[in-house]
Amino acid sequence: MASSTLTPSCFGSFAAAASNKTSYSSPAAFKPLKLPLFWPWQKVKMGPLSVSPMGFGTWAWGNQLLWGYQESMDSELQHIFNLAVDNGINLFDTADSYGTGRLNGQSEKLLGKFIRQSQVKNDIVIATKFAAYPWRLTPAQFVKACQGSLERMQIEKIGIGQLHWSTANYAPLQEMALWDGLVAMYDKGLVQAVGVSNYGPKQLVRIHDYLKDRGVPLCTAQVQFSLLSIGDDQLEIKKICDSLGIRLIAYSPLGLGMLTGKYSPSKLPSGPRGLLFRQTLPGLEPLLTTLGDIAEKRRKTIPQVAINWCISKGTIPIPGAKTLKQAQENLGALGWNLTQEELNLLDDGARESPRKMIQNIFQTR
Q: Residue limits of the NADP-dependent oxidoreductase domain (predicted)?
């Protein structure tokens, strides 16, 4: 940056360079200018918070069953966090249930550790989700869950406290207690804003109105939203969010990896994902072909196009990353926009693909 500013000392350097070709050709004198992936004014308002147009999801950070997490990965995960922050990402999504077995809550613990070692910790927004476990039956127990997350992350306040799923379909009385728990944690100043996850259209309107009557704005709604999961319910949720001033956070924007172009019916991931991929991938050829054509034309990758589609639809996608390569690829979804023609082609490709992603069983109507 300094080498591109013309000061008296710079003119002196140019003069010296004229008589010294070695000095003039030094790579240090011509350090390329690196533009940000997005400008500060392109941040997205999320209630009282301002966040990057894309966040990072941390479901895999601690999950051995589905994502093959090992504690030996922690060093690379820290590099992923640092890379994201260095490129302006300030939204990180997690949950108190992320982690398996003895590693339950590991995602929150790692995020807290990485934040403490960060130089921009005050700008980072943590959106964590509190599970609607059957033993969380009272508002006080839900507040205690929030306090547990604060302790694991060792932070003073959570950016967005989210109810991970609705119990309306099987335990409606518990649902009301959990809603009151959101109100209580907001009133106590434990969270800056509140949100929900896996709420369908009708229940989303109900909780919005319930919280509004108690002076608590519903800030976010997090649902599975991608080219692979788009349907009538998801589109209706998006319309409701737009009309009520709720930000839609798109989780699984790459369909658990099916929208990366890295897998085929003959090349499946191991574990439970392989079973789902075997059922779904054979019907995705129209969509994957369209993604590939646009990616080649734009000199992007298929995942970058799929994530940019989510951004172009007015959502905040939160793709995950287990490796630096994945993180770098995710960041490449920022700094450009699909055209309306390209969006239409992708929408058509999604409609022509006979198989869709199975919706989360916890999503209500």
A: 53-347
- Rounded CA-CA distance 327/325 in Å is 5
In this structure, is residue 141 part of a structural domain?
Answer: yes
Query: Could you list the pLDDT tens digit for every one of the 365 residues in the chain?
Result: 443 333 333 334 334 444 444 444 444 455 566 778 888 878 999 999 999 999 999 988 888 777 777 888 899 999 999 999 999 999 999 999 987 677 788 999 999 999 998 877 778 999 999 999 999 999 999 999 999 999 999 999 999 999 999 999 999 999 999 999 999 999 999 999 999 999 999 999 999 999 999 999 999 999 999 999 888 889 999 999 999 999 999 999 999 899 999 988 888 888 888 888 888 888 888 899 999 999 999 999 999 999 999 999 999 999 999 999 999 999 999 999 999 999 999 999 998 886 665 556 566 66
- Asked if 98 is an active-site residue, the reply is yes
CATH of the domain at 155: 3.20.20.100
Do the beta carbons of residue 107 and residue 61 sit within 8 Å? yes
- Of the candidates 24, 69, 98, 170, the residue annotated as catalytic is 98
What is the total count of domains within the chain? 1
